[in-house]
Specification:
Number of helices: 13
CATH class of the largest domain: Alpha Beta
Helix content: 25-40%
Bound molecules: flavin-adenine dinucleotide
Radius of gyration: 22 Å
Structural class: alpha/beta
Distance between the termini: 30 Å
Oligomer: single chain
Number of domains: 2
Amino acid sequence: MQQKKFDVIIIGAGLSGIAAGIRLAMFDKKVCILEKHSIPGGLNSYYKRGKRLLDVGLHAMTNFAPQGSRGKPLTKLLKQLRIPYGDFALAPQNYSKIVFADSTLKFSNELELLKEQINTQFPDQVDGFNRLITMIGEFNETALDNEYQSAKEVVSNYISNDILKEMIFFPLLIYGSAWENDMDFSQFAIMFKSIFLEGFSRPVGGVRTILDLLMKKFSNLGGIVEYRSGVEQVLSKNGKACGVKLESGDTILASTVLSSIGNPETMKLIESQSEPAARSGSMSFTETIMTYGQRPKDFGEEAAIVFYNDSNIYDYRCPDSLYDKKSAVICFSNNFAVDDFDEGIVRMTNIANYSQWKNLSKEDYKKNKELVLSDAKALLKSYSPSFADDHNFSDVFTPLTVEKFTSRIGGAVYGSPDKLRTGETELDSLYVCGTDQGFLGIVGAMLSGISMANLHVLSKN
Ligand SMILES: Cc1cc2nc3c(=O)[nH]c(=O)nc-3n(C[C@H](O)[C@H](O)[C@H](O)COP(=O)(O)OP(=O)(O)OC[C@H]3O[C@@H](n4cnc5c(N)ncnc54)[C@H](O)[C@@H]3O)c2cc1C
């Protein structure tokens, strides 16, 4: 049988892998994406329950940019992949909220709302907040040689009120930090811009709108994608990657291998790995999805995303218990400019402990999923007492579900705290893209795939 040979093999059909694939195929590279699961999307895929098509990860897409804006991550990404703006069908959020015990801050895709809120509730912090915005605007968060810097330390030079500082950190940590209770300042700047300066939107039709579009584009460009094709080993010769061996035993050859599956996960595929393994991340989550006969606005709720914390200190760390009940992200998916659902939908994310879930018996696992649901309903009622008591449908997934369908060690949604900014690994021609290159979320992961394809393949030709 003839050995398959490509210019580039991409491990993983998550958003970074697909974006890299399109970019390379646009320049006539022979590309093959190998995906372990039976559908694309990875951490941001979809699944079916009865008649309902549910998004795995999508609350909102960060990095919103209105049509016609220039130089923003979203517009750069569309330009690099030659996708017309309208094809993503983005519906901007109404607004979002950060709710703490003693204060609530609203923010939207217009920075002015957040500034007004800070002005009213923390007037002595306004100057510092404005200085922070200027500094972040001038900071190059994507420079590949940025070293780790504690964001909490940097931000303390600008914001002296502890409650405000905690409130600002909450959305940025829970939407993208592999580090507990702090984050790398470059990551902070990426998240700050993507959430507070740019904002949230949701593709009408959910993440499938984007995935279908991307997969069609990839295949029209001649790209090959093989599902149910888990990679077991990266093959190398004289310190240079030269292909992969699949779990089926087949081998496929390529001059370059791009891996989107994570830093420690990729290291495990290198046979001769000599360096100490990268750390696995510890941040994982439970996700509860509930549908209702009425829409959130019928209960007086107009916010798209609510970052809810029952005290004035936000504790972002792997909890000692199965899941953290003190804080949650509540997503009201109907509350974007276009409501394409035929029912009310609420999603709730709680920080969770993978090891605790892993140690449960089958019976206890089931029981505890029911507890997650009843606690989610209780938290929703305590946040919004007028909300309906009864839901039509619900589903809960745990860190074990994340691990099962994405192969992320420990269900670590934001990957390892050890990022590989340049994408380089100990093997020549093996590069990491996506979450563990340091860029995540839908837009971040795609930009990472594109930039690694540009840097390590296209600019070399
Ligand atoms: C619950 C949840 C909520 C989220 N909410 C949002 C949100 O609201 N907005 C947002 O922008 N982002 C959100 N995210 C984050 C976002 O989904 C991710 O940051 C992004 O999708 C990561 O893409 P990636 O390409 O880096 O990695 P992945 O999506 O992990 O892609 C890697 C792919 O590699 C495959 N793979 C793994 N091992 C192998 C192997 N050995 N061989 C072959 N294939 C393999 C996996 O199956 C996977 O498809 C959320 C994630 C979750 C889980």
